[in-house]
């Protein structure tokens, strides 16, 4: 500490709904407005800044797979994709990805991205044309890597 600086302390809390939390978010938003005004202006004023997407694969009346995503600007983020375990390997996941790509192109997306665990199917996404752009080793504290993948569409 240099002369004239007041010492500070750090405290922990498990309550996020507080005036202090509001202040911290305000500081970040103010900085973001200065650093990236066009993005922040668009986020604040565009009614469709984020658009949710739910794709369902059906056989007869039963859902056999689904994909949940969210479009933001030119990115479509797939947050969840799953197929009925009895029907995996039959192309349902590939069709869901293809439909997400089609929907993304129709809605001005240039990219798809997803994160997935080492045991969840990173190879499936690689085969679908995604590239690994990041990894977090031991993400779950049990030795499994989390992969971040993206694809230009």
From TrEMBL:
Keywords: Acyltransferase, Transferase. It comes from Blastopirellula marina. InterPro entries: Acyl_CoA_acyltransferase, GNAT_dom, YpeA/RimI_acetyltransf. This is GNAT family N-acetyltransferase. Residues 11-153 form the N-acetyltransferase domain. GO terms for molecular function: acyltransferase activity, transferring groups other than amino-acyl groups. The keyword Repeat does not apply.
